[in-house]
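Morning run. Coffee first, then this:
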Amino acid sequence: MKVADKSKDSTLFQVDGVLLPDSPLPLAFHFARNAQAFSERVYRLAGVGLAAFLRPILSLASRRLATRLLYIPLRGMSRDRLDLLGEEYFQYVLRPLIDPLGAGQIQACLESRRHVVLVSQQLDHVIRPLTCFLRVESLLTNRLEYRDDLATGRLLDPVIPPLKRPKTSSPRGQISREEPSNIRGLLDWEWLKTCLVLDAGRLNPDGYVVSTSRPLRTRRYPVVDFRKQRAQLQPFSVRQAFSGKQLLLVGSTGFIGKVWLAILLQDLSEIRKIYLLIRRQGARSAIQRFEKIVAESPVFKILHERHGERLGDYLGERLEILEGDVGEPQLGLDDKTAEPLYANLDLIVNSAGLTDFNPDLRLALSTNVESVQNLTEFLRKSDHAGLVHVSTCFVNGRTEGRVPEELTPNYTPRGDSRFDIIDEWNYLHEAIDRLTREAESPEMSAQFKQESMARHRQGDDPVADERSVQGLIRKVRTRWLRDQLIELGIERARRWGWPNIYTYTKSLGESLLQLKGRDLPIAVVRPSIVESSISQPFRGWNEGVNTTAPLSYLLGTYFRQLPSNKRKRLDVIPVDYVCRGLTLVSAAVLRRCHNRVYQLATSANNPADMRRAIELTCLAHRKHYRSLEGLEHWLRARCDTIPVSKTRYESVSLPRFQALLEGLRRMLTFLPPVEEAVARKRRVIDRYQKVIELYKPFILDNEFFFAADNIKVLSHAIPDNEVTTFGYDTDTIDWYDYWINLHVPALRRWTYPLIEGRRPEAGLLPRNFKMPVQPKKSSNLQTLLQEFKPGRDVASNDATEIPQPAQPSGD
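And here it is:
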């Protein structure tokens, strides 16, 4: 970002030799020896060494050429890496060397409201942290040229050579009359011009002064509108759309659901009533589950702080808990509970879903497919309600190119015309019934019993032994049936072109929604990979291990080679942006000005490819380990994962190690302790391999990106006074700051402990919370009978009320 001409009231302050050491060689060596790959480090160090050798000789002919030569070996290094390494070098090497006298003089200039500009021959990657430390707003330094965020090795103009101020006080060397002459390191504009070779159009050095803020990647917008018809939408207010409305939220106990519920409670007091459909879990009722979530989840911390002990009363006025199950007809509600909902509901929002990549097919169908049919049937009985259904962008499956915002009937990634959603649904249920009967057959029962007897340890009590064997048989049967159903789901998914059961069943749900609800007010919201929040409910909230957390955790170990396509876009979106999108889409459905599909994604307008995502993750781990002491952390900070091809991965990485360890285990069968140690290592590598196999469709296979135009149209239609609260703009996300300073630290705090089998240290809030007991609603006839109960004077205002039993939380 260029700064306007301030040459008349700016103070130029020399950094080299005044605030910090004046040699740029140590910084160049620091960048070279911390390149991403080990091979890079070797040839970059050799290049910097050669440049350091030739630099004194070339400086006799041209100091600018000698300065340029020093940074040529950095060609190909990313801006992200140089920024982090520059910040690290300043923090651990240069900061202790800052001259306190010079720093004090700069602070004196700032206090006198002078515009201070730091001038240095060093790269801006290391001077920018210095300006932040000194609270200076502008700098004039050497800057590398970048293409696609990779350094070209060329310095941008003006090239700043080592500044040697004149020893005599010539007119050009004199400082400004407005400055105290005793300030060491002060530079004069006129003298600086003689040291720099400037463009003819910008003879003033101030034209090259830049802001200390990190430059963001230039946004690239499409020049072609792929939509069939340009969207026309009248301005609307989100608050007016939700005013006086009644909502039913399904999936409010999930990652997205909890965050959105907290945002609605904080920002939209205009909503009349929110109903939460929560499933009973064993002996724990729906209301008990909700109370536990509110008491323990950090998502509701702001509400606890705002309302204190009155939070229960506040939520009791705005919420009503319904015990039901979206996988059951009529959402598992009895007629008495459902009838008022049919009449009064304005909107149903379904964010429930089973997000495991390859779960039990029965659970996936119940949550991701059958729930859609139940919701459309419930919606059809409603008087005026609309539906917002949360799906996923990855229903596209194994496709290439741009993924449009469309809902295609009987969609398959391969475009197979033989596919029919009803036929597929019937086939799956028939296959599940067939496998269930097979699991109960005498032949399989005998096999299960034989396997159980082999595992059972004989005891002294025959009755206890029999019970133990029967328990083992049930476990073996359950495991066998689950494995068979997972195998069936994977086989069907891959047959039609989906990589796993999750995307397969989510797409089946969309096809069923298109078939059953084509004439209903329905909008489908497709988020991409939902990750850590930027601001709501607070900065850096995350939970669960079903997104990029396992892969990110793997990159923080000694794992070196990840099979991935460097150009493939990893589409990540913060959870609070998903919630903003849900709010906008819900408002549009309430006003009946919605489109059919809204994709909440970043790969089209603010992409981060796999090369950058891998490097940012490793840099975030490096920043963490660099702050710790010990050899283990020192080594981990210097082991960066690199993206490699599938062929290289299979020949030199985990698959090869698996084969070597298996051969070693067989050779050492005569040494049981050593064999067991090798077997443990093999199991660890097997777990790593499973993670990579699960994520291959998202990091290696196919190159696609998701159009996200419809949500932008909605965001542009809201009034200016609502943009801060409800606006949606993913173009402003700085992935460097998000990944290094927010996302990976959030995973380290909330998610990595779960992967390691621990509880997050700061995960639970020590609060007790109970929803208020609501009186049971009685019918009109019951009310009339109650009025004439003996002992109650109906005409008296002082009559004693007969207490009513509490209303149950569900059927």
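The CA atoms of residues 401 and 704 lie 4 Å apart. Good start to the day.
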